[in-house]
Amino acid sequence: MRTLLVVALGTAMLLGACTEPRPVTVVHVGKKPLGDDTNGYAISIRRPEPEDYSGLRGGAYVVRTHEDWQKLWRDADEAPPFPQTVDPSTEMLIVVASEDERVAQLKIARATETLGAISVVVRQTLLGEGCVRTWDDHAGVDFVVVPRSDKPVKFFVEDAEGPSCGQPPKSTVGCRVASAQSWSPKLTAMSGEVVECELSTVMQGKYGVIDQALSLEDSPPGSNAKLSFSSGSTRATITPDEFGTYIVRAEATDEAGRKGQATAIIDVTPKKTRDVLIQLTWPDVDPTDLPAPLPRVVLDVTQGGARGRRCSSEVPIPGLCNAKTRGAYTYMRIFASRRRLPLSLLYLDERPQSGPVPCVNVWFNGARTVSTCDRDHRHADDRWEIGTIETWTGKVLPPKSKAEAKRGKPARHEH
User: Fold this and answer.
1) Beta-bridge partners for 254
2) CA dist., res. 372 & res. 358, Å (int)
3) Does residue 6 carry a pLDDT above 50?
4) Domain locations along the chain
């Protein structure tokens, strides 16, 4: 009869047991010293030529017959041929397999025999710091040939720490306008200026860097600007065509698939126009790599009169304003006129005191007239009353009274 133990490596160890006439048991000793159970007469072991044993389920097995071999592959589409160099009349196979991604290598170290049992010592090498599992079919499976015996078999699994693989590659990206000498991960440019960006990578671990690339991660609504590469993928130029924020992402990938990433932010000022241009941003966070979603908000201006309609990206008002939202940013254009329009930000979600901070910037005639941020704790449905825009100057006046800002403090203008 066949003795088979199926073992799932769910916690970087071999687990489970079964009882049959010739029982197989497994003991995970971890990093503790091996006990007297592993003492005995050393058994001669040999390894057949490596074969493709993909599809073998994780576990510890004893194979004494051809039938045992077939049952070993019951979860595979087809069993590979029985090893030709093994004679089941005088020999048997000891097999271990792992499916755990935290195990870098599995190896049968030695086997001993006493009057009552056979002991097999299995060493599983765990991934070192910063390492990823890259083994082939041979690294996750080991099998040896030993003299045939009907004695019970007991596996002792010990852990060994693999060497550190170091940190992923470190990427940095800097940009500059064509006339500047220094590179910076954050800069201000004018619409129509040529901006050049460059990626640099430092290898920090044992894996070599195999890929580096720059990409345009975000741009203002309506922009058709793209990165242009003259040679290679680590240096590119872009010509912003709309005011707002452009985000250039740098990424380096090593042989293990680990990535190093960085971003550069290009704030582009608008061309001169008598329209009032407004931008809502979250400058303290990288909107492409957020640990949690940003609070949902709605930026709007209010048209006076009995109807009191609010113009926003969700509800545009022809002739008054249009607004678009892309990612974490909102861009609003208030058409040239002589109006005073209250400007506010409605919170649809709570923003804790220590949460991401929204900022509103206002431009008029090519110059920024207001920059203000809300750092107060806000509940869902709270409204930050920013102030009243004079559309013919681009200035923002404080709210008329505290009553109008009952649930939102007056804006603190920071210019």
Assistant:
1) 209
2) 9
3) no
4) 3-161, 170-269, 276-405
- Token pair in block for residue 152: 């019970």
User: How far is residue 395's CA from residue 146's CA, in Å, rounded to a whole number?
Assistant: 88
Q: Give the CA radius of gyration of the chain.
A: 34
Tell me if residue 6 falls in helix, strand or coil.
strand
Compute the C-alpha angle 141/143/145, nearest 5°.
175
- Residue 132 has a pLDDT of 79
Separation of alpha carbons 118 and 176, rounded Å: 70
Paired with 212 in beta bridges are: 252
Contact yes or no for 16/8 (Cβ under 8 A) = yes
pLDDT exceeding 70 applies to what percent of the chain?
87
Burial of 276 (0-12, 13-18, 19+ CB in 10 A): buried
Query: Is the separation of the CB atoms in 134 and 103 below 8 Å?
Result: no
| Token couple for 240 | 């912003």
pLDDT in tens, 133-168: 765 545 688 999 999 999 999 999 999 988 888 889
Beta bridge partners of 246: 266
d(CA 309, CA 300): 10
The answer to whether 62 touches 190, Cβ cutoff 8 Å, is no
Locus of tokens 């113009």: 311
**pLDDT grade, residue 13 (50/70/90)?**
very low
Q: What are phi and psi of 66, to 5 degrees?
A: -65, -35
- Is the pTM higher than 0.70? The answer reads no
pLDDT tens for 195-238 read: 999 999 998 888 888 899 999 998 888 788 999 998 788 999 99
Q: What is the DSSP letter of 213?
A: E
Beta strands in 127-169 (DSSP E): 141-147, 153-161
Place of tokens 């006990």: 35
* Confidence at 53, pLDDT banded by 50, 70, 90: confident
Residue 109 corresponds to which tokens in the numbers above? 């170290």
Pairwise pLDDT comparison (57 vs 64), residue with the higher score? 64
Backbone φ and ψ for 68, nearest 5 degrees, come out as -55, -40
Domain range 170-269, its CATH number among 1.10.150.530, 1.20.1740.10, 3.40.50.1110, 2.60.40.10: 2.60.40.10
